[in-house]
Design goal:
It is a single chain. By secondary structure, the protein is an alpha/beta fold. It has two domains: 60 residues; 242 residues, Spore Coat Polysaccharide Biosynthesis Protein SpsA, Chain A, CATH 3.90.550.10. It is 32% helix and 15% strand. It has nine helices and eleven strands. The strands form two sheets. Strands 1, 2, 3, 4, 6, 8, 10 and 11 form an eight-stranded mixed β-sheet that branches. The chain is globular, with a radius of gyration of 29 Å. Bound molecules: uridine-5'-diphosphate (UDP) and manganese (II) ion. The site of uridine-5'-diphosphate has 16 residues, from β2.
Length: 344
């Protein structure tokens, strides 16, 4: 009896001991796991908006990094050493998309970043488009190397209007802004007609303290400003400037008026339009006739007289559309949208 009772006591005790050990390890696992979870939520996420500036990078007293992490790049120089100035542009009818792709191997899904320095600005180029494939090809051919010579971090977005209802350039550009911001926190937006090709890479595709108009002259107007106050063709506004004016009006269907409306919005905000010097802000416009589906908008003057009353409720905050597809092609992001049709 005595020996049995001692044995059973030992067995019972070791049972308790095992149970205790088991619960302790479960407890330890739970604390460790939840700690990791909390840590991962609190840890700052590596957002695409993180921007390291050269002047910030060199400050601080940290020890030299002995690990294998790559050395941070410095900020790109104020003036890119790659600029070439005025260029003779070619528009060969034999040009193929494949040629443009192989000449721009550094571009991935329409996006490029210089490899040896950190760009001073991130820029989204927005191109409203329908049935102008040849113009798009010429523009991509010239614009990619042009932007790379400017050492920009950029991406090109082409916003296609689906269907054959009357064209609406302004609404497509609003859509481009909204869609591009889903990818990245672009600092600067360039609203760019498909048929205007810049002739001089000193015409910098960056934004300024005030909205910028980049087409001072084009071949088709004898390189003169179309008219005083013209704000069409190619314009540059920061993310904040464009938001401040509530973007473009969505109500201009057909040709004309939407660019003047944007100028009025800018002026209402007491902003001033800047232009680069006339000798660099030069463009070649690929010749075209007025497109079918983009007839002159006969309501444009009436709409323009209403801008002051409607700008707050007609713009980015009321831009309704349906994205039909977002294709990440080698040289651009192709956004196709159903934007509806005019009410009248
Ligand atoms: N656009 C287009 N397809 C059209 C109509 C217009 O792609 O059917 C786009 C294209 O980007 C074009 C811009 O809208 O450059 C402005 O239209 P357009 O070239 O007719 O204006 P203008 O030459 O008078 O500045
Ligand atoms: Mn044109």
């Amino acid at each position: 009896m005595g020996i049995f009772s001692t044995v059973s006591k030992v067995v019972r005790r070791s049972k308790y001991f095992l149970l205790l050990l088991l619960s302790l390890s479960v407890l330890a696992w739970i604390t460790n796991f939840s700690g990791e979870t909390v840590k991962s939520i609190l840890a700052p996420r590596a957002t695409t908006q993180t921007f390291i500036r050269g002047d910030e990078m060199n400050s601080g007293t940290a020890e030299p990094d002995q690990s294998n992490t790559p050395i941070e790049k410095g900020e790109c120089p104020q003036v890119s050493p790659l600029l070439k100035g005025a260029m003779n542009l070619s528009f060969a009818s034999s040009l193929k998309l494949k040629d443009v792709e192989s000449a721009n191997k550094g571009v991935t899904e329409g996006e490029y970043e210089p490899s040896d320095c950190t760009s001073r600005q991130s820029v989204a180029i927005l191109i409203p488009h329908r049935s102008r494939e040849k113009h798009l090809l010429y523009l991509l051919h010239h614009l990619h190397p042009f932007l790379q010579r400017q050492q920009l971090h950029y991406a090109i977005y082409v916003i296609q209007q689906a269907g054959d209802a009357t064209f609406n350039r302004a609404k497509l550009l609003n859509i481009g802004y909204l869609e591009a911001l889903k990818d990245y926190g672009w600092e600067c937006f360039i609203f760019h007609d498909v048929d205007l090709v810049p002739e001089n890479d000193h015409n910098l595709y960056v934004c300024d303290k005030q909205p910028k108009h980049l087409v001072v002259g084009r071949n088709s107007t004898g390189y003169k400003l179309r008219y005083k106050g013209y704000f069409g063709g190619v314009t540059a506004m920061t993310r904040e400037q464009f938001l401040q004016v509530n973007g473009f009006s969505n109500s201009y269907w057909g040709w004309g008026g939407e660019d003047d409306d944007l100028r009025v919005r800018v002026e209402l905000q007491k902003m001033k339009i800047l232009r680069p010097p006339a000798d660099v802000a030069r463009y070649t416009m690929v010749f075209h006739n007025r497109d079918s589906g983009n007839q002159i908008n006969k309501y444009r003057m009436g709409l323009l007289s209403q801008t002051l009353q409607v700008w707050k409720k007609d713009g980015l905050n009321s831009c309704s559309y349906k994205t039909l597809s977002v294709e990440r092609l080698p040289l651009y992001v192709n956004v196709t949208a159903d934007i509806g049709k005019p009410q009248v």
